[in-house]
Amino acid sequence: MKVEYDRETCIGMFQCVDEWDAFEKNLDDGKADLAGAEEVEEGVFVLDVPDDAEFDAKFSARVCPVDAIRVYDDDGEQLV
């Protein structure tokens, strides 16, 4: 499972930070950061989700008010 995070879309509500510890507050930029993620294109970050964090990753995507977080299964199908 992978999570894709579009940092440019983020508006800094930090609801994802409350749901999954992979997201961190960046108060200087007013946006969240996805720790350990790889930037695959400008402002878009991807991270492999550990098995024990799948629920948290999905929930962080569900609570994002601007849909900046998407979760994909191993076949590339979007789950959230």
Automatic annotation (TrEMBL):
Which GO molecular function annotation, any one, does this entry have? iron-sulfur cluster binding
Pfam families registered for this protein in UniProt: Fer4_15
Q: Give the Gene3D superfamilies listed for this entry.
A: 3.30.70.20
Source taxon at top rank:
Archaea
Its keywords, alphabetically, are: Electron transport, Iron, Iron-sulfur, Metal-binding, Transport
Read off the PANTHER family from this record.
FERREDOXIN
The name this protein carries in UniProt is: Ferredoxin
Q: What is the lineage of its organism?
A: Archaea, Methanobacteriati, Methanobacteriota, Stenosarchaea group, Halobacteria
